[in-house]
Amino acid sequence: MLGATMLAGLVPAVAGAQTAAPVAAAPEEPAAVEEIVVTGYRASLASAATMKRSATNFTDSIVAEDIGKFPDLNIAESLQRIPGVQLGRDVTGEGVQISVRGLGPSFTKVTLNGAQIAVASDGALDSGSSNREIDLDLFPTELFTKLTVAKTPTSGLLEGGISGTVNLANARPFDRPGQHLNMSLEGGYSNASRKVSPRGAVIASKTWDKFGILVGVAGGSQRYRTDGYETIGFTTPNLTNPIVGNCTVATCDRRGLNGGAGGGGFKFATAVPANTGFGLTPGAPLDVSQTSGLSFQDLSNTLAPRLPRYAYIDGKRDRLSLLFSAEYRPSDTLSFALDALYGKAKRDFNRLDMNLLVRNATTLVPIGWERDDNGVLTKGVFANAQMFIEARPVSDKVDFYNINPSFKWAPNDWFELTGQVNYNRSFFLRDMPSFIFDTAPNSGLSVVFDNTQGGDFPILTPSRDMNDPDQAWVTDSYRIQRAKRVTRNEGAHFDAKFGDNENNIRVGYAYDDTAREILAFDNSNAAQAAGVAAIPNNAISQYLLPGPSRLLSLANIAPGMASFVQPDYDKLNAAIHTQQLLDDAPFSLTGTSSIPSGFVNERTQGAYVEMNGVTDFMDRSIHYNAGVRYFHTDQRIEGPISLNGVISFQTTKRSYDAFLPSFNAAVNLTDKLVLRLAGSRTVTRANPNLMLPGTSFSDISAQVASQGNPNLEPYYSNNADFGLEYYTGGAGYISANYFAKDIQGFTQTRQIQAPFSTLGIPLSALSSTQLATGINMNTVISINTTANVDQTLSIRGQEFIWQQPLDFITNRLPGGIAGFGVTANYTHIEQDSPGSAATAVGIAPNLYTLGAYFENYGVSVRLNYTYTDDAVIAIPPQNNVNVSNILAARGQLDMSASYTPDWMDKAYQITFNAVNMTNEPLTTYSSFESAPFSIYYPGRQFLIGVRAKF
């Protein structure tokens, strides 16, 4: 087929691409871009090839043909079609954030109409995003006309994205002069939630001679359900008690840090507890080697899940976005624009987990344990067990607004001045009460753990019905947590061009002031007192209900329980006055998702000079741009610290600056072959939550602590890019790119084992739940801190692209028909940091997309398969055990189809989309596939809708 592609270069092909209308009053982009103008999928590919061929730097764009008409349901998933872009999904299956060319979301700069933005939302479940990532699911595709990914920088681009810069351009009235009304309405159905989720948009625009207005609204209400299995990591037993084998570090050498002692996250009983059963005599000495069937050595090195549990997440997310855009063009040389975008989202969901208590347990009895060659527990009984229901009714609210006036003045053919100012603000609020009730201790409960049945996760089979509210329950904890985040950005950018469009010099100035405020509130101690007083143990059953049905019905194996209890939230909230506890919650050093409180402000001024030109060498044209950008940043970081039980705020102020040169060139080696070269130096600032000086705990038992480092330096990268592109005509081409990044100052998280007193905070700073573990100032815990490493992190990658219409073949077949084609891209990434453990986490070494399409006679059908390889998302150690967490390889098949009837001037279109057609789960594991860390089943989604334009 590749040979046919080369042959197609000799066969005339139809391009038929359109170009977009000029954009009024927008700051001119500093370099040519590759654009896909979507008048239909075939035309978009033809336009992409044309635009790519004429570009100077490595840049890709997706451009909508019509206002409100984008080829994908989600901005992040649209960008996934671009080579080198990896999509990060929430447990609901929806794309949230993107990573570009081997680095995580924080290394990608996201701008709106060329201006910097910051969004306060939280990212995917449990990610606790509070850094520089942008959750793209907040922005509806219907209100945008162009998404641009600049993989190599020009000096005119704002600094901050080592991996790339993504610009979102909203719709404007002069994108399509005249009067227009575009509408869309869709209904989605998920086989997981078995509920309908509507979404829709209305965009109206009108232009007069010199003035135009566009108003748009887009919204939706998503109903979702995701069942899963979770573990919260792995650990090993602690067998240091003489009664259970006199097992010491020297004799048992538990699996842990660097292969030495580690883990030890739970203990077995030393004497047989009452009601244990299995023929054991209560009170008799317990030989766990005999009951487990493993030697003390093997038992001490067995990796067991800390909290194996079945998970249920059911919720609703409502989104609404409003866009206002006005353009005024008083003359051919002067234009103004005003863009205002507002978005808000509200998500309420019920999160239930039925846990087997392993972490910090002290009286478990192992019966008939088996393990694999990696030491991972595969089968066995946890006797004298306890289970607990953890219920979290979560409410999230986020809003965002951006105001962005701009102008363009070009009084003659050799001078042009553009400018814009912008202001945006985002607010996030999360309320997360937690209610935890345990089965009674020493009640004779046992749980069979079986991971030998060939399923995606272990089967947990308790000896009693966990869906029975009337069995004996005891209070574990009531927790009340609230998180608030506010981000703000204000800036001004001005650019001047001297010369014509091909040969010119550009200069510019930029000012940006960005602030992030992260506040945590915790009223758990008061909630615990209120809960214990209001609801005695013998009354807990009155506040519980049978749980949801169809647990893990989309999995490839049946769980060991069909359902489990959940709280009666109305009765529970009324009894302990949950809302009042939330409103009265006092300030806390850390909060949900273990994000510390604090404030980060960065004021940056930048200036650049850039030369663009076209020249001929040996009868071959060369397009080039070269320049240098200078920036200066003043940074202020404030965070709470606790000394001698007194909370005070520590402030760190610092400044830094740098020069960032860049160069891009495109050489037409032949009429069909283009060579691209690029070199640059780029910067990304350290993540805010790593710089906040406070202490946070990633684990409710206070066994793993993290402390921030306000002195982290920015990351700098030296970059080189090389590319070859062969164009066969029309939409067909083959492309191969090589890129290299050498990053200095990359950070590495180091973990040490030290007494709790090392943290410098009092025990009174802990919650009652943490104190209940028996922790004291001399308890040895794991402490994580982050520092810049001296070594260089090297990233090397290759991108391959192939797309080809097949008309030159299908037209020659009997009854030949035009409209078929194929698309494909593949990215390979390698990273290395000799002498350090610095790792860019979350990046798959291999990812590819395969697509096939047909478009003719008003019918458009596109199949798209995306595959992402295994990716390390957390490096060792984890929970003081020498394992990493890995996002498992995953492929997803999607379909997009539409039919446009000929009647009424093709004003109507019927659409159908199928997402995750093969029901692929989202899986992570701890070093070994037999040790699943988590697995979620978002299910399939089907959407049918109609679009209309007038």
Radius of gyration: 29 Å
Distance between the termini: 42 Å
The DSSP helix count reads 13
Considering DSSP H and I runs of 4 or more, what fraction of the residues is helical?
under 10%
Strand-residue proportion: over 45%
Tell me the total number of β-strands. Answer: 47
Task: Report the uncertain regions.
Answer: 10-38, 241-245
Estimate the global geometry from the Cα principal axes. Answer: globular
Return the structural class: mainly beta
What does the average pLDDT come to?
A: 88
Could you give a short account of the major beta sheet? 22 strands, antiparallel, barrel
Question: How would you describe this structure to a colleague?
Answer:
The structure is a single chain. By secondary structure, the protein is mainly beta. The chain is 9% helix and 51% strand. The protein has 13 helices and 47 strands. The strands form 7 sheets. It has a 22-stranded antiparallel barrel. Strands 1-2-7-8-5-6 form a 6-stranded mixed beta sheet. A 4-stranded antiparallel beta sheet has the order 16-17-20-21. It is globular and about 95 Å long. The two termini are 42 Å apart.
Topology:
Blueprint: H1 2-8, E1 37-38, H2 41-54, E2 59-64, H3 75-79, E3 85-89, E4 95-100, E5 108-112, E6 115-116, E7 144-150, E8 164-170, E9 179-190, E10 196-207, E11 211-230, E12 234-235, H4 249-252, H5 288-292, H6 296-300, E13 304-305, E14 309-331, E15 334-356, E16 365-371, E17 377-383, E18 387-412, E19 415-439, E20 447-450, E21 459-462, E22 473-499, E23 504-522, H7 524-534, E24 544-545, E25 566-567, H8 569-576, H9 578-583, E26 587-588, E27 598-617, E28 620-643, E29 646-668, E30 673-684, H10 688-691, E31 695-697, E32 704-707, E33 715-729, E34 732-744, E35 747-755, H11 768-771, E36 780-788, E37 793-805, H12 807-810, E38 820-832, E39 846-856, E40 859-868, E41 871-874, E42 885-887, E43 890-899, H13 903-906, E44 908-915, E45 922-926, E46 932-937, E47 941-949
Parallel strand pairs: 1-2, 5-8, 32-36
Antiparallel strand pairs: 2-7, 3-4, 5-6, 7-8, 9-10, 9-47, 10-11, 11-14, 11-46, 12-13, 14-15, 15-18, 16-17, 17-20, 18-19, 19-22, 20-21, 22-23, 23-26, 23-27, 24-25, 27-28, 28-29, 29-30, 30-33, 31-32, 33-34, 34-37, 35-36, 37-38, 38-39, 39-40, 40-43, 41-42, 42-45, 43-44, 44-47, 45-46
